[in-house]
Design a protein that fits this description.
48% of the residues lie in helices and 17% in strands. It has 258 residues and is α/β, with parallel strands linked by helices. The protein has a 6-stranded mixed β-sheet with strand order 1-2-3-5-7-10, sandwiched between helices. Strands 4-6-8-9 form a 4-stranded mixed β-sheet. α1 runs parallel beside α3, α3 packs parallel to α4 and α4 crosses α5.
Length: 258
């Protein structure tokens, strides 16, 4: 892979967008490489948590590559949107937990990738924005859909309509960022969180992720029915028996399901 690097540290996969000279701008090739890595990861039973970040300290990903987009026609623009959506769909729905380690600018498509992650940790220098309407287009990787679910419709419309950048502390206040940490501590913080998550029953975590995702798309009654079914499913697993026996025996559980 030329622009997206993959590093696996025990049960953690670190996916790094690596175009620092272009502020990690996203073009077709970058999205295709992200997709290829995520598709490989989701079938890897060893990996329990994915951390997505950008190379360097200036940018997570400073949006789509405008030098590419300016020459694209309608069909090419729609294809680019499909790559954006496929990347986001994988981050949102893969069985592994996904954490965005946001270092610097997360603009446009970069912001949309963070929105698709389960958890967002922002460095103090992080900046979030969806500036597309200032370029004559709209957010095309789920920004008009996911942002409002995270921060509310009114605030989402304001961010999209004004193209204003939101700093790390404001992102935290709005619920866009789960945590804000010093730049130098960002990856260590995310890795510590990943290790904590990986220490739990990974199949149960993946089922919990699916259950929470369901809540975004159905009414409360349907969501609770789905939750009840999933709970019953987990009662038939090895990890349920092991986790409860370990609790009663006051020992560390040996979870194996995933």
């Amino acid at each position: 892979m030329e622009f997206v690097k993959l590093q696996i540290e025990e049960e953690i996969a670190i996916v790094t967008i690596d175009r620092p000279k272009s502020m990690n701008a996203l073009n077709n090739q970058v999205y295709e490489e992200i997709i290829a890595h995520l598709e490989a990861i989701q079938t890897n039973d060893r990996v329990k948590v994915v951390i997505l970040t950008g190379a360097g300290e200036k940018a997570f990903a400073a949006g789509a590559d405008i030098a590419q987009m300016v020459h694209q026609d309608a069909m090419e623009g729609r294809y680019l949107g499909g790559l954006c959506h496929r990347s986001a769909y994988l981050l949102e729905n893969m069985r592994q937990v996904t954490i965005a380690a946001v270092n610097g600018y997360a603009l446009g498509g970069g912001c949309e990738l963070t929105l698709a992650c389960d958890i967002r940790v922002a460095a103090e220098n992080a900046r979030f924005a969806l500036p597309e309407v200032g370029l004559g287009i709209i957010p095309g990787g789920g920004g008009t859909q996911r942002l409002s679910r995270i921060i509310g419709v009114g605030r989402a419309k304001e961010m999209i309509f004004t193209c204003d950048q939101i700093d790390a502390q404001e992102a935290y206040r709005m619920g866009l960022a789960n945590h804000v940490v010093p730049q130098a501590e960002l990856m260590d913080y995310c890795k510590a969180m990943a290790r904590k998550i990986a220490s739990k029953a990974s199949y149960a975590v993946s089922v919990a992720k699916a259950a929470v995702n369901t809540s975004e798309n159905v009414d409360l009654s349907s969501g609770c029915a789905r939750e009840q079914d999933l709970l019953g499913l987990l009662f038939a697993t090895h990890d349920k028996k092991e986790g409860m026996e370990a609790f009663l025996e006051r020992r560390k559980p040996n979870f194996t399901d995933f």
